[in-house]
Amino acid sequence: MIASSPPKTFILKIKRSLGEGKPSHWESFEVPIRPSMNIISALQYVAANPVTTDGKNVEPVVWDAGCLEEVCGACTMVINGHVRQSCSCLVAENLQDGNTITLEPMSKFPVVRDLWVDRQRMFDNLKKIHGWVPIDGTHDLGAGPTETQEEQEQRYAYSRCMTCGCCLEACPQFTKDNDFKGAQVFAQIEYFNSHATGKELAAERLDVIMEPGGITDCGNSQNCVKVCPKELPLLDAIASLGRKTTVHAVKRFFSGKK
Ligand code: SF4
Ligand code: SF4
Ligand code: FES
After folding, report:
1. What is the pLDDT of residue 258?
2. What average pLDDT score do residues 164-178 get?
3. pTM higher than 0.85, yes or no?
4. Which candidate, 171, 166, 149, places its Cα nearest to that of 70?
5. Rounded to 5 degrees, what angle do the CA atoms 236, 240, 241 make?
6. Strand partners, 96
């Protein structure tokens, strides 16, 4: 039996548009396969050779990227129908029908152009929930509170979030025209509220997710946890915040606060 040799080129099929609300269309590019090639290097080839398979010269494709090592989340897109990072997606392992890969922008964020989306909503939500540890840096505060190894390890799991948006892309509750905060923000509330100093703002953070678009709007479909590339314990965060917001609501009621 003669072993079939791997293809020398593949077809990169890309959904293109000039921005949010503008019409979109598909263009295909033939790209030579190099060993260990990832999607970003294939896009770099297309940027240098913006000619479609039917011979048309087109504008170079636009995408976003930063770290190139699955840490910044900027290169997240929908590859062969699955949301993931394009820097860690290897061409050879993802060819469909032997020679094609499709790329689309995430659908839950406004498209800036082609594969580049605007993830600002996630960063705005981090501001709303006070996603920081409040310390006054103008004078010596002395040693901070100590934590056990176990506490550090629990919190570390949440620190891995790279604000990529995969969990929101997969979430049926998170849409472009609603206020649902989503698993990314829930996980960061759990992260900062379990920090010995960060918990000073715990009540303010819980207040934010007790508003419309908060934790009670989660439908518990669990899609988020299945697609998180950093394997954050998102369902633990959602369950924990469900309990904590209930206690917080009772405390608020008895303290007379609305
Ligand atoms: S459990 Fe479902 S509804 Fe809730 S945040 Fe995750 S994907 Fe969205
Ligand atoms: S929780 Fe996971 S999927 Fe969601 S933004 Fe953070 S790293 Fe990405
Ligand atoms: S470029 Fe940073 S995650 Fe891919």
Report:
1. 60
2. 98
3. yes
4. 166
5. 120
6. 100
Ligand 2 pocket, residue 167 CB under 6 Å: yes
187 lines ligand 2 (CB under 6 A): yes
> Residue by residue, what is the 3-state secondary structure of 139-195?
CCCCCCCCCCHHHHHHHHHHHCCCCCCHHHHCCCCCCCCCCCCCHHHHHHHHHHHCC
Domains of the chain and any CATH numbers:
9-117 (3.10.20.30), 120-135+146-255 (1.10.1060.10)
Measured CA distances, 90 to 28, 40, 72 (Å): 18, 9, 18
pLDDT at 18: 98
Closest ligand by atom to 85 CA: 3
174: left (phi over 0), alpha (psi -120 to 50) or beta: beta
Instruction: Check pocket membership of 214 for ligand 1, CB cut-off 6 A.
Output: no
Structure tokens at 8: 């020398």
CA–centroid distance for 54 within its chain = 34
